[in-house]
Design a protein that fits this description.
alpha/beta; nine-stranded mixed beta sheet; 9 strands; about 20% helix
């Protein structure tokens, strides 16, 4: 399969001065510099009906080491994880997911307040998340797969209110990085919308 490196390196530094937007890239000066840096975008008008008066905290998601990176993952040959060569996310994946979850809550316009640790909100609930899949899967086809497990935790007593796993798959026309990123962004938007709707319904 063209364009995919089967090399299990788990870190890939971003190059200073290469500013990224979705589906745009920059040419680095060295042989190890990424040729393109991709971003994620949150759903602008998520279809969410419920409203919450809670103040919600979004900690950084957990992820296995293979996904706790700025590399863009490809799964093939069953469960073999490799990465697209010389392209990266604009930040480590958990940071991107965290930022886009916050933005999805904000874009819904249906939550009293949502924020990150250290912002000083009087928190009612924390949303603990784990990234379980965020990749192009080429086993028997090409699918962008995103799966995030979430737990609503009452911040006053530490008790779990509800637990759910959200998953979306989107067919991808080619195995090129740009097409894969579009598919992953689309799948992620479905997951972010479903997750936020679930939280607002339960809080």
């Amino acid at each position: 399969m063209a364009g995919i490196r089967k090399h299990k390196r788990l870190a890939f530094g971003l190059v200073a001065g290469c500013l990224a937007i979705a589906l745009s890239g920059c040419i680095g000066g060295g042989s190890s510099a990424p040729k393109a840096i991709f971003d994620l975008s949150a759903p602008v008008n998520p279809d969410i009906r419920h409203r919450s008066n809670a103040q919600i905290l979004i900690p950084k998601p957990r992820a296995i080491q293979a996904l706790n990176t700025s590399n863009i993952a490809v799964v093939s040959d069953g469960n073999e994880i490799s990465y697209f060569p010389k392209v990266v996310w604009s930040d480590e994946l958990p940071n991107l997911v965290q930022a886009n979850l916050v933005e999805t809550f904000e874009n819904s316009g249906r939550v009293k307040a949502v924020g990150l640790p250290g912002e000083g909100l009087l928190i009612n609930y924390q949303i603990s998340t784990e990234i379980r899949a965020f990749q192009l899967d080429v086993n028997g086809g090409r699918r962008a797969i995103v799966s995030i497990a979430a737990k609503i935790i009452n911040d006053r007593n530490g008790r779990a209110v509800a637990t759910e796993t959200f998953r979306a798959e989107v067919a991808v026309p080619t195995d090129q990085p740009a097409a894969a990123v579009i598919g992953m962004n689309s799948a992620a938007n479905q997951v972010f919308t479903d997750l936020v709707a679930w939280v607002l319904r339960r809080t």
